[in-house]
Hints:
Blueprint lengths: L4 E7 L13 H20 L2 E7 L2 H13 L9 H27 L5 E3 L3 E4 L11 E7 L1 H11 L2 E4 L5 E5 L4 E4 L2 H9 L3 E3 L6 E5 L5 E3 L6 H12 L3 E5 L5 E3 L7 E3 L1 E3 H9 L8 H13 L5 E4 L4 H5 L5 E4 L2
Parallel strand pairs: 1-2, 1-12, 2-9, 3-9, 4-10, 12-16, 15-17
Antiparallel strand pairs: 4-8, 5-7, 6-7, 10-11, 13-14, 16-17
Helix pairs in contact: 1-3, 2-3, 6-8, 7-8
Amino acid sequence: MAAPKTGVVAIGGNSLIRDKSHRTIEDQYEAAAETSRHIADMVLEGWNVVITSGNGPQVGAILRRSELAASEVHEVPLDYCGAQSQGQIGYMLARALTNEFKHRGMKKTIAGVITQVVVDKNDPAFENPTKPIGSFMDEQTAKERAEKYGWVVTEDAGRGWRRVVPSPIPQKIVELDAIKCMVQQGVIVYAVGGGGIPVIEHEDGSLEGIAAVIDKDFASSLLASDLGVDLLLISTAVEQVYLNFGTPQQTAIDTMTVSEARRYIEEGHFAAGSMLPKIKASVQFIERGGNEALITDPPNITRALRGETGTRIVPD
Length: 316
């Protein structure tokens, strides 16, 4: 029997929050359960799967609780917020997938790995915060919180205002060897949640947590390259990538080469807070030797894997 193919599936932290009226933990679990059904379909198609996720809304909620409770209990540093969100989302996915596998009679195991990711302490991102985290706000609320808490806030791709924090480039995944071992044994792994907990590495090899958020698409791309997987699949809110998105000239892209993707980036087709990092991460994966990246939404994962929809990024 041929060895199973392996894919890294990156899901967004926002995908666990369907809308403003469905933000509770129970609501997020239901969204995770729905995504898990699509991932189980992928496993049935013969894939080994490594799952990654965003964590912006979840980290934002943890930080907000910390701020509100500061007069009663200690505040939570940003790197620990990332760690908490990894445990929270990992638990949701692990329970949902375990239940889905049991329901289908599939003998599969899922394990979550609390993952640290090394960044460069001199990364220019620390001088220019750009990574949105937390909930969307109106402009007045955002500016009030910026004044009160010293936040940097910005308008995010036409969807509202959000807090932004440094987003350094991921350099190394600390737990990579452990992740490799589990993948080789056929375990479904959840790793680099939220892009990983950002740490800096000192000359003696010791690690120190740092206040930042790593983009989950770039961390997922790095993990996919380091594992040598067959596919990087980025799950997002749209079925395909579009040129001229949101205009009467909107056109779906079925396949684009790395060169075409770079040209579209230069032409400004992809929004910085949404699709742009997904395209850049896909290009990086291909340039590091990957065969194919695929962008689609959760309900269409199986169809996209069969070539019926989604957007593929491939070598020139």
